[in-house]
Amino acid sequence: MSETILNPNESLAIIQKVVNSTRQDYHIQRKFYILWGILIAVASFSQYAIEKNILSLPKYYPWIFFPGVGLILSIYWGYAGKKTSLSYYNHFVLTMWFTLYIALGLTLYISLYNQVSPFPYILVCVGIGTSISGFLMKNLLFILCGLIFGIGSIYCLFIPFQQQLLLNGVCMLLGNVMPNLISQHV
Amino acid sequence: MFNDLDPLLNSPVRLAVMSILLTVKHAHFNDLLKETQTTQGNLSHQLKKLHEAGYVQIEKTFKNNYPLTIISISQTGKKAFEVYVENIKKYLHLNENNT
Q: Does residue A11 sit within a domain?
């Protein structure tokens, strides 16, 4: 069976067409970001409820339980995600967030050890990740949400610990969950 | 006429597949099918040729009990593609200094 032989012009045209048309956002796994945003927000609100004696749970229990759930689901989804197409962009973003979440875990541990509030640092970390994602996607919403985290981290310095918990939860929902939910339908 | 051009890459579907694989870490068979707009049989046939030449790596697995084929470009494939593009440039009298 004879095959179509391309001339250099046709070859170049195919390469240009394919590279331009190939979707760079193959199966963006926004569920990771939505999951972690919700879990950190719920952990913050639960901690607030514990601080206010609304919930009777051991102190800092939410920061063990919810990230634990996130970790198990992330490993499971990460394994399943290997079975889909993955663009270099998504690979970079997933690796960046994985590294940032490790940084968040360490920040939380170090802050608790030193008995200082972790929230300004947590918000800075998530803000950096959100802004970088926004710049890479050329998505203004994510860039602005990164700024929300930045403003939130500075505002944290001027409010008591209990209010920082609420601010952290609200920032996660507004700056992380909301843009990922909206962008899913763009 | 264009005998310097790698015959394995000098075919529409195979060239399209290699171009796609250069932009992704790995690709699902169905995504390649969608992007190349060819038939399942033809794509399998072309992938087999690329695989035999060592240009692509093919991993066959299962997802939810359905067979799943994951394809990625190999180092040999990347090198061959680079050479192919360089040869196209020569034919078209393009080089980096005047682009």
A: no
Query: DSSP labels for A47-88?
Result: HHHHHTTSS---TTTHHHHHHHHHHHHHHHHHHHHTTS-EEH
CA distance B76 to chain A (A): 18
In a domain, A69, yes or no: yes
ipTM of the complex: 0.78
Supply the range of the domain harboring residue A139: 26-184
The answer to whether B56 touches B77, Cβ cutoff 8 Å, is yes
**For the segment A121-137, what is each residue's pLDDT rounded down to a tens digit?**
999 999 999 999 888 87
Domain limits, chain B: 12-88
Question: How high is the mean pLDDT of chain A?
Answer: 84
Task: Say if the Cβ atoms of A11 and B11 lie within 8 Å.
Answer: no
DSSP A114: T
Torsion, Cα of A37, A73, A83, A173 (10° steps): -10
On whether the CB atoms of residues A144 and A178 are closer than 8 A, the answer is no
Lookup: tokens for A80: 């399943």
In this complex, do A84 and B28 lie within 8 Å of one another by their Cβ atoms? yes
Q: Do A9 and B92 touch (CB under 8 A)?
A: yes
Residue A6: inside a domain, yes or no? no
With beta carbons less than 8 A apart as the criterion, state whether A36 and A70 touch: yes
In a domain, A80, yes or no: yes
Nearest Cα neighbor of A186 from A144, A125, A137 is A137
Q: Which CATH class is domain B12-88?
A: mainly alpha
Q: Look at chain A and report how many structural domains it folds into.
A: 1
